[in-house]
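Troubleshooting: if your tokenizer reports a length mismatch, compare your output against this known-good record of 98 residues.
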Amino acid sequence: MPRIEEEIESELEIEEPSKYKVLLHNDDYTTIDFVVDVLVGVFHKSFTEAEAIMMDVHKKGRAICGIYTYEIAETKVSQVKKLAVSNGFPLLATMEEV
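Known-good structure output:
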């Protein structure tokens, strides 16, 4: 029986998923301690990183908490909203494409 060999060339282009930055926005009611707790609990920042980001939020009006794929960024925004509402704070988190 003859051997039939077939060579298939295929180029697959794999695109990196779009990235989104998650931002926290300053307000006049949310406590500093709560913002730090959110950064540690939701964004897995160290206490030192959380304090630095919290100060950026306070001084600049908003700060980036992390850069994620769409689904993860959306989840982080949702987690912040649920925590803020359940604790009586108006803390706002948004996401923007990088």
